[in-house]
Amino acid sequence: MHAPLMQPAEPQQIWTELGLAPYACFSHRSQGRLHAQEAAPTRSAFQRDRDRIVHSTAFRRLVYKTQVFLNHEGDLFRTRLTHSIEVAQLGRSVARALRINEDLTEAICLAHDLGHTPFGHAGQDVLNDCMQDFGGFEHNMQSLRVVDTLEERYPDYSGLNLCFETREGILKHCSARHARLLEQREPGGVGQRFLLGRQPGLEAQLANLADEIAYNAHDADDGVRSGLISLEQLLEIPLFARYAQQALAEYPQLQEPQWRRKWLYEATRRMLSEQIYDVIRHTSAGLQAAQPADVDAVRQLPALVGFSSTMAAESAELKRFLFKNLYRHPQVVRTTDQAKVVVRELFAIYLADPAQMKPRYASRAAGLEPVACARVVADFIAGMTDRYALREHERLTGQRVLVP
């Protein structure tokens, strides 16, 4: 069960929440934290969550975790950290327009990838394969595990002790099996909605969509910057082409070779803006029709934050294009195949000899039965940055892979 916030909200704690819609999440009405704690004198509970996330070790590690391109492939490609910051910026913009809680939205956005493995989705997929006999691996579950257990900062408890609403948003996907396990450990907690088929609060719904909007846009940008996809290819995608032509009509010089980078940026900027406005329009109309009285009513309704049907279809087309032409590009596949070997071999080595892990993890794994030991190994690997995983792999195997 959750511990309620230990003191009533003072005016200085909630002034930033004045003017929020009744269906927003209010920090002074939070369902509380796993461990009772007095409220801060100058920050709301959700502001405090955001600050804890930003100061966490897992958040700092995101700067050296792959989004699509590894660090050595270029200094200007997005990482998990820059992606998370972009998601938070988009989320705050929409939250303000919808009159829902900006601080909670930002906290969820900043934390949503804390459990991601090194080497992006390739690392996650292979770690899940390695863990098939030991309970599997889901990066959303791992993000929750990071903030609930793995971060070690406070003498009174493990984890960051975040509010229910922040943790609810971090766990945006969850299998039924894992939801049942969560419900056993935390009755009525963050796993329950997956068993009941309910939605999270609007802030969590928004963070999920902001993630999608951000990575579609910046992966297209990084893809062109890398040379793996071209501006001409993007101009064949209706969603992108519409805003590229708008930009060209206003600035004809953008078609000149020396201006093409600005053309890409301007088209992407306009596309992002229109997606944001579409979400605001469509979601506002849905809220007006549903008239939820509070956040509990929101949880009983179908998802309310989303695109219009037209924008959803166009965004899905862009996503399919990126999947086919960027994420499955031979150069990306070649790199991710090597990364998978690194993760798979690290897992096998650590499972066979847990003492090869850092002492903190080695001591945790000592004497555990195989399933529990494998979870410690997965925790250790999932927390690695790309470059640390490569150094560990070289130390343990003598092989150098994915070097610039």
TrEMBL record:
<feature type="domain" description="HD">
    <location>
        <begin position="80"/>
        <end position="216"/>
    </location>
</feature>
<dbReference type="GO" id="GO:0006203">
    <property type="term" value="P:dGTP catabolic process"/>
</dbReference>
<protein>
    <recommendedName>
        <fullName>Deoxyguanosinetriphosphate triphosphohydrolase-like protein</fullName>
    </recommendedName>
</protein>
<keyword id="KW-0378">Hydrolase</keyword>
<dbReference type="InterPro" id="IPR003607">
    <property type="entry name" value="HD/PDEase_dom"/>
</dbReference>
<dbReference type="GO" id="GO:0008832">
    <property type="term" value="F:dGTPase activity"/>
</dbReference>
<dbReference type="InterPro" id="IPR026875">
    <property type="entry name" value="PHydrolase_assoc_dom"/>
</dbReference>
<dbReference type="Pfam" id="PF13286">
    <property type="entry name" value="HD_assoc"/>
</dbReference>
<dbReference type="InterPro" id="IPR006674">
    <property type="entry name" value="HD_domain"/>
</dbReference>
<dbReference type="Pfam" id="PF01966">
    <property type="entry name" value="HD"/>
</dbReference>
<dbReference type="InterPro" id="IPR050135">
    <property type="entry name" value="dGTPase-like"/>
</dbReference>
<comment type="similarity">
    <text>Belongs to the dGTPase family. Type 2 subfamily.</text>
</comment>
<dbReference type="InterPro" id="IPR006261">
    <property type="entry name" value="dGTPase"/>
</dbReference>
<dbReference type="InterPro" id="IPR023023">
    <property type="entry name" value="dNTPase_2"/>
</dbReference>
